[in-house]
């Protein structure tokens, strides 16, 4: 209904006007019909009366032999406001007098003629002409002689005028009624539509919250049900605002927890995509925080770990059960630095029956794993050391007996060559065994007090340990130190340092490689006032890649998967630091061919140990002289 108005006010008005017009129209029709009937009945009675009275006047005039009076009374009757025409005829129906026109030119209509035989009685007869006109007829008697008939016909115009005037007043009344009630309805509608408009504005402002909050509370302009509705609306908005501020508090609480918790937190939807992540998680994955959202684990993390995490998340979605302390380990980077995570996943419900998200808590367990591993290895090492020491100790006793026996053989048995030569060879080898067992014992027994140790003691013993391997690989060894030069240090620990460095160099060298071991009086390159000894252990072996070089001093970092523990350099550095010394490392990989103009490959370790106790002046002089 396109024509139907859209606002409540005009709808009410239109409905009212329609209803009133219909009812007033219906009322007018009924009234008109009733009035028409009344007019019909009344006019019939009057016609009967008027025709009877004209017949009586005519009969009187005829009795008094004054027929002219009949014409007079016909004329008078014809002038009546309701009468169209009055006539008097003889008994045969010939018009004698008429109020309109000439009598001799007027004739009765067939309908009128048909009434003549019926109208002879005492009563007047009223009948209907064509065109719904009414006419009354009455017989005129003088005594018992029929002298004629008196005819009176009513004017149609009169009846219509009667009806019209009635309809007119009905119309005027109707219009006044409709206008008055329309005004009333408009006023009433205003009292409904204005507060409704206020409510409407309020609802829109509510949708725009919090910017729309200035519109509240809404003004209550009416004291009726709509006013109460507005008041209820205001109360609802106030309670909503309260709830919203509570919700905001909770959200900021959760946000700060997410941002500041010292654990990695991530949330996933059903397709395993990140919905939310905190900074710690991003730090753990090494992927920027903003790159996580909307992406899957498989898209961001390296494979075995990503798959394992994804499986965990999917399992929680499927089983609706948390997974706790699942350990995930992997390696990252070229150097293959290993890491370990402890992951727990739990379901998050927004509706009771379905898991909406899965939350993942990740903790970095790398350090813990490493220290566990370190502890394990250290214990193993200590056990091995103790075992080696006890074996060395046990060998010492029979060895001493052998040495003594060989001495006796050599000096008191007057042996001759080649027997004497063999005995001295045996004695030489027995001394070597004794030396090795001594070294083993010394390595294990840590000296508790620093002493002045000679270079021959610090470095020479290391060569005796590695002699076999050096010879087997035909390594060219350059020993560049004064065996008598001494250093105030924990000799056992310093030996361990050189054994490690030389051992690493031999591991890196191939056949016919070169190994340099040098010791010089010098000063600290960070602090020239500090005097001490600078050791250099250099090889022209395989060298280290930058990643290896960066991690070489970390505990348990090794590239010798099967043979190495990765503790050598770490322990060495600890010992140097304990002596307040410094370690420098330079290393380069590549082909050892220098003739092609390439730079030297290999590894150089430089260690400076300060000689704090004595001989500092002498040391400085020597160093200066060398420089
Ligand atoms: N002279 C060298 N040349 C080349 N690489 C070296 C050299 N010295 C050390 N490295 C590298 O540094 C890593 C760490 O050395 P470190 O001595 O700490 O452990 P390791 O030798 O592997 O094991 P361990 O000494 O406990 O038997 C080695 O695995 C090796 O890759
Ligand atoms: Mg080593």
Relative helix content: 40-55%
Q: In terms of per-residue confidence, which ranges show pLDDT below 50 for 5 or more consecutive residues? A: 614-627
Q: How many strands?
A: 17
Query: Pairing-aware structural class of the strands and helices?
Result: alpha+beta
Distance between the termini: 111 Å
The average pLDDT value, as a whole number, equals: 86
What's the number of helices?
16
**In one word, what is the shape?**
rod-shaped
Rg, rounded, reads 67 Å
What characterizes the major β-sheet? Answer: 5 strands, antiparallel
Spatial arrangement of strands, main beta sheet? 2-1-5-4-3
Bound molecules: adenosine-5'-triphosphate, magnesium ion
Strand content: 15-25%
If you had to describe this structure to a student in words, what would you say it looks like?
It contains 16 helices and 17 strands. The longest helix has 56 residues, at 8-63. It has a 5-stranded antiparallel sheet with strand order 2-1-5-4-3, with helices on one face. The chain has helices at 8-63, 67-78, 110-115, 156-207, 225-260, 279-285, 289-292, 297-300, 303-319, 366-412, 419-444, 455-472, 491-508, 546-551, 568-578, 616-626; strands spanning 83-89, 95-98, 125-128, 134-142, 145-154, 264-268, 274-277, 323-332, 337-349, 355-364, 451-454, 476-480, 486-489, 514-523, 531-539, 582-588, 602-610. With 627 residues, the protein is an alpha+beta fold. Bound molecules: adenosine-5'-triphosphate and magnesium ion. Magnesium ion binds at residues 500, 503-504, 564, 568.
């Amino acid at each position: 209904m396109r024509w139907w108005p859209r606002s409540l006010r005009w709808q009410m008005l239109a409905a009212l006007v329609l209803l009133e017009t219909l009812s007033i129209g219906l009322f007018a029709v009924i009234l008109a019909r009733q009035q028409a009937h009344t007019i019909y009945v009344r006019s019939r009675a009057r016609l009967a009366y008027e025709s009877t009275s004209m017949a009586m006047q005519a009969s009187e005039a005829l009795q008094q032999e004054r027929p002219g009076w009949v014409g007079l009374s016909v004329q008078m009757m014809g002038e009546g406001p309701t009468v169209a025409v009055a006539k008097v005829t003889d008994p045969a129906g010939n018009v004698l007098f008429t109020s309109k026109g000439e009598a001799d030119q007027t004739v009765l209509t067939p309908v009128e003629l048909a009434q003549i035989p019926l109208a002879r009685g005492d009563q007047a007869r009223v009948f209907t002409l064509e065109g719904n006109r009414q006419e009354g007829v009455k017989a005129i008697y003088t005594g018992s002689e029929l002298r004629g008939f008196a005819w009176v016909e009513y004017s149609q115009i009169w009846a219509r005028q009667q009806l019209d005037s009635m309809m007119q007043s009905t119309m005027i009344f109707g219009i006044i009624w409709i206008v008055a009630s329309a005004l009333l309805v408009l006023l009433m509608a205003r009292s409904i539509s204005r507060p409704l408009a206020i409510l409407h504005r309020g609802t829109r402002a509510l949708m725009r919250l919090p910017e729309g909050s200035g519109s509240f509370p809404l003004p209550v302009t009416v004291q009726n049900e709509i006013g109460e509705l507005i008041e209820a609306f205001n109360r609802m908005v106030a309670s909503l605002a309260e709830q919203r501020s509570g919700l905001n508090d909770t959200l900021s609480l959760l946000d700060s927890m997410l941002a500041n918790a010292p654990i990695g937190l991530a949330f996933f939807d059903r397709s395993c995509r990140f919905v939310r992540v905190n900074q710690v998680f991003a730090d753990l994955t090494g992927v920027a925080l903003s790159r996580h959202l909307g992406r899957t684990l498989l898209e961001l993390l390296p494979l075995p770990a990503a798959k394992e995490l994804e499986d965990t998340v999917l399992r929680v979605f499927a089983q609706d059960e948390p997974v706790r302390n699942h350990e995930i380990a992997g390696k990252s980077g070229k150097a293959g630095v290993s890491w370990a995570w402890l992951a727990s996943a739990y379901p998050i419900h927004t509706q009771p029956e379905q898991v909406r998200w899965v939350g993942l808590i990740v903790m970095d367990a790398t350090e813990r794993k490493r220290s566990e591993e370190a502890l394990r290895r250290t214990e193993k090492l200590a056990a091995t050391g103790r075992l080696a020491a006890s074996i060395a100790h046990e060998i010492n006793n029979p060895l001493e007996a052998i040495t003594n026996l060989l001495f006796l053989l050599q000096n008191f048995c007057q042996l001759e060559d080649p027997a004497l030569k063999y005995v001295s060879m045996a004695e030489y080898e027995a001394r070597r065994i004794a030396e090795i067992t001594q070294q083993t014992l010394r390595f294990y027994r840590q000296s508790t007090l620093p002493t002045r140790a000679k270079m021959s003691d610090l470095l020479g013993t290391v060569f005796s340990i590695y002699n076999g391997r050096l010879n087997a690989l035909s390594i060219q060894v350059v020993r560049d130190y004064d065996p008598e030069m001494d250093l105030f240090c924990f000799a056992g620990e310093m030996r361990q340092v050189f054994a490690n460095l030389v051992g690493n160099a031999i591991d890196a060298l191939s056949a016919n490689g070169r190994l340099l071991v040098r010791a010089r009086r010098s000063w600290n390159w960070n602090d020239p006032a500090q005097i001490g000894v600078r050791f250099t252990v250099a090889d022209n072996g395989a060298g280290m890649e930058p990643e290896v070089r960066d991690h070489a001093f970390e505990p348990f970092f090794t590239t010798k998967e099967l043979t190495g523990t990765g503790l050598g350099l770490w322990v060495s550095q600890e010992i140097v630091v304990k002596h307040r010394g410094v370690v420098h490392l330079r290393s380069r990989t590549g082909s050892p061919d220098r003739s092609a103009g390439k730079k030297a490959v290999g590894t150089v370790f430089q260690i400076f140990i300060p000689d704090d106790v004595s001989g500092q002046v002498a040391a400085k002089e020597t160093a200066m002289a060398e420089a």
